[in-house]
Specification:
Length: about 750
């Protein structure tokens, strides 16, 4: 929708709301809706409204706290009694089973209501309103976990959860009371906040039976007040939900407030064409003149992305997909079908030469009906498929598949059985999260999740599933066992990418903790199991490369990209950058070789070969004829007896700013130093008599250093001075000799 139409949409929807109030049947009264509930707890005392399900307080929980003024009137208008319960950590209310087990709901429909306020604004993990006892026994559960408030339920014949819907706790105002209602009708699960359908997901099945756990309210962690709670053995209508949430006027006021919020977020609403063109020119000029914006790395033309996901060579083009951000259109938000929160989507760029890129419309877009409140997360392009096929994680649903409908990979069709691996029915040890997949003969395989909880498989691991039709998947167990000599228990195997490399197989992964990084294993793959033999990292503390992804091209090359992000809470504006394409191959000793793609040489121009190639001993030498922030440098250095030696880039004339690339032969390391505060150290050993051969790519705020075809350091740098353009050679603790030095300016490909 064009920004100029926003106000018209807002006014139209408001008019429709007024029309509904005037013409539609009068909303039912809240007390009438509560009358057929299985149980209602007004919180004025410990009794339920029908006296069959009295509450038993535990710890610091008390009921009967009087509300005053407008708060009391709001409680009464919703069917409450103007009195509330107060809960602090360690306190909760126990409703038991209800008279004759009446709280053991049956069938394929239910509704749950809890009116609450959390003045602290801090949400500790815990159950707010549940019949729990573990996921294998759980019937229903309104809960808080991390930054999410959610509802989940269990169904007969389903070993795990049958449905789950969540909203962000940040949407709950600590100064306000909130009406939280969860409704399941046998087809859909909807979570309402203040009468608004805030999240929804498809779900099916009859409510789980045989749970003898009591119904608990405010269990663990909750600090705040509870006005009233209720349960129904049916799905309430939309009008009944609105009635219990303050009525039509309240919902209309919320729409008006949200409309203003959306207009403020969109900004520049109602601009003329001349205004829009002038704004586009100003944006291009600003981007072009930003001294930190990379000029020849792949990055989005606007907005942001994070994880690099599916990559594929298809019909003469390289395709790279990324996680971006997208919110529903204004009309969808104001209709109440979905929230205004942006969520993950798959962006798409393609190239014929690995250097010049075309940005396409988003490839995968969430369904904006509340069923994908967090969008589509990371995944992969399945290998060896006759038609390009994306395998992806959809939060709240599970593993989903999408198939290309055209050779440009612009349109994608969802698999009719999505989610083909539902999160709700997964084995308890398998974590349903970022997947990758491939075809092997007539069998399809998928690695799913960043952890496997099987005893003995602590640390990074993932779970293997297989299928013969893509619709039905069988769990095969943990795919490999990590070892503590290589990784720590806290590490995980997210965004996996598994493929043959030479005579071995390689597993690439993203690791979330202790810091975002890329790492890999090389080893044997036999009988549906992977046996790591070599482990390596592509990021070390202080570095910023993660979310790796590869493809096999028409030349038989394994091409790699990673996401070069920015570390720390504050960013410098260009956190969405892809690494240069790298070619991965296997050395004779099964170690990994990493080299820049030869296609990058097409960007070279203005070659320089400084003539002062000589020995340096405990000194440094500035290259007078070489300056710049968008360069490629190729060096060959004989280490001599120097303890440390290397190259400095982005040097200011007085040395206040500089970034050093340091080889330390005795320490067997290669490192980058950005001033005194930022350092990244990688293992690197020169063989006896072997020179150091560097390929250095400098692109304003990005530095990539390739060493002897077997190590690569990726670093973000942020010089603040316009004159930090100098290049220096140096040695410490002895002498070294520069045998070769070539420098090229690099032509820009990011014109704006």
């Amino acid at each position: 929708m064009k920004m100029g139409n926003v106000r018209g949409v807002v006014l139209l929807l408001m008019a429709l709301m007024v029309g509904r109030t005037a013409l539609a049947a009068k909303l039912p009264e809240a007390k009438v809706v509560l009358a057929d509930a299985v149980a209602v707890w007004p919180m004025g005392d410990l009794n339920s409204a029908d006296g069959k399900s009295p509450l038993k307080p535990h710890g610091a929980a008390k009921v009967g706290v009087e509300l005053q003024g407008a708060e009391r009137e709001a409680s009464l208008a919703r069917g409450g009694d103007g009195k509330v319960a107060e809960i602090v950590p360690g306190g909760w209310l126990d409703a038991g089973q209800g008279g004759g087990g009446g709280l053991n709901l049956k069938g394929s429909a239910m509704t749950l209501l809890l009116r609450l306020r959390n003045p602290s604004g801090s949400w500790n993990p815990g159950e707010l309103f549940c019949k729990h006892g573990g996921h294998e026994k759980l019937v229903y559960n309104l809960y808080v976990n991390g930054d999410s408030l959610g509802f989940e339920f269990g169904a007969e014949g389903q070993p795990r959860l049958a449905g789950q819907a969540t909203i962000a706790t940040s949407t709950l105002d600590p100064k306000q009371w909130h009406d939280v209602i969860a409704r399941y009708d046998g087809t859909n699960l909807v979570l309402f906040l203040d009468g608004w359908a805030a999240a929804r997901t498809k779900a099916s099945g009859s409510l789980r039976q045989g749970n003898t756990e009591p119904v608990l309210i405010g269990k663990r962690g909750f600090t705040g007040q509870l006005d009233h709670a209720a349960l129904w053995q049916r799905a309430l209508t939309d009008d009944e939900v609105v009635a219990l949430s303050g009525g039509e006027a309240m919902l209309k006021a919320r729409r008006e407030a949200l409309a203003k919020k959306i207009e403020a977020k969109i900004g520049r609403e109602g601009l003329t064409l001349a205004d829009q063109l002038r704004g586009a020119r100003e944006l291009r000029e600003r981007l072009w003149n930003d001294p930190l914006r990379p000029r020849y790395h792949l990055l989005p033309p606007d907005g942001m992305w994070n994880d690099i996901n599916g990559t594929i060579w298809w019909k003469g083009r390289y395709h790279v997909f990324f996680l971006g951000r997208l919110a529903p259109d204004v009309a969808t938000i104001l209709s109440g079908k979905d929230s205004d929160h942006a969520r993950e989507t798959w962006l798409h760029a393609s190239s014929r030469d690995l250097v010049h890129w075309v940005h396409h419309p988003p490839a995968l877009v969430p369904v904006f009906d509340g069923s994908m409140p967090r969008g589509l997360y990371s995944g992969d392009m399945m290998d060896n498929m006759p038609v390009p096929t994306i395998i992806v994680h959809v939060p709240g649903q599970g593993t989903c598949l999408f198939t290309a409908e055209d050779d440009e990979l612009l349109h994608w069709k969802p698999h009719p059985n999505n989610p083909v691996i539902p999160a709700s029915n997964a084995p308890p040890e398998a974590v349903i999260f970022d997947p990758c997949g491939w075809k092997e003969g007539d069998v399809y395989y998928a690695l799913v999740g960043n952890k496997n909880k099987t005893p003995g498989y602590e640390g990074d691991s993932t779970s293997l599933f297989r299928s013969r039709d893509l619709a039905h998947w069988e769990y095969r167990g943990p795919f490999y066992k990590s070892e503590r000599r290589w990784t720590d228990p806290i590490e995980d195997c997210a965004c996996p990418d598994f493929f043959p490399l030479g005579s071995k197989h390689m597993l690439l992964m993203h690791t979330h903790r202790p810091y975002g990084q890329a790492q890999y294993y090389i080893g044997r793959y036999e009988k549906e199991r992977f046996y790591p033999e070599v482990h390596g990292r592509m990021t070390w503390p202080g570095g910023e490369l993660c979310a790796p992804e590869t493809l096999l091209d028409d030349k038989g090359r394994r091409i790699f990209w990673g996401w070069i992000h920015e570390s720390g809470p504050a960013t410098n504006g260009w956190k969405s950058v892809a690494s240069l394409p790298r070619v991965l191959s296997l050395a004779a000793d099964s170690s990994l070789r990493i080299e820049p793609a030869p296609e990058l040489e097409a960007l070279r121009c203005n070659r320089r070969q400084p003539g002062m190639l000589s020995e340096l001993c405990n000194s440094e030498s500035i290259l007078k004829d070489v300056r710049g922030d968008c360069l490629e440098m190729a060096l060959t250095i004989e280490p001599g007896d120097a303890e440390e030696f290397g190259l400095k880039v982005r040097c200011s004339p007085d040395g206040e700013e500089q970034t050093a690339i340091v080889c330390a032969p005795r320490a067997k390391t290669l490192r980058t130093e950005c001033g005194t505060l930022k350092k990244q150290v990688a293992p690197f050993e020169l063989k006896p008599g072997e020179p150091l051969q560097l390929r250095v790519f400098l692109d304003r705020s990005v530095l990539e250093v390739f060493a002897n075809g077997r190590q690569c350091l990726t670093q973000r740098i942020y010089p603040t001075r316009a004159d930090s353009l100098g290049i220096k050679l140096f040695s410490r603790g002895g002498g070294m000799k520069v045998k070769k030095l070539d420098v090229w300016d690099m032509s820009p490909v990011n014109s704006w």
